[in-house]
Design brief:
globular; DUF6703
């Protein structure tokens, strides 16, 4: 299963590698900020996309990470998921 996902990811990773290093970060940041501003269902979708992207990268990098790197990156994914879920419930 992992091999299929890795092979299917090669074209996207190749495309991302050709972009300037700052572009994927800015796209991720825009998704998170737009999700925070939009709120509710749209915010959930935007932040969910950001969480999926980071989770996908974590999955691909997992075998090569140390334990502390796994812990920190997993915390980032969990935080992104938590932020996405909070967008579903209106405040006050």
């Amino acid at each position: 299963m992992r091999d299929k996902i890795e092979r299917a990811s090669v074209p996207v990773l190749t495309f991302l590698a050709r972009l300037p290093r700052l572009v994927p970060f800015v796209i991720l940041l825009v998704l998170l900020l737009a999700g925070a501003i939009a709120g509710h269902a749209l915010g959930f979708v935007l932040m969910g996309l950001a969480a999926l992207f980071v989770g996908w990268l974590l999955y691909l990098a997992w075998p090569r990470l140390t334990s502390s790197e796994r812990l920190m990156r997993s915390a980032v994914v969990l935080l992104a998921v938590a932020l996405a879920i909070t967008q579903l419930f209106p405040r006050g």
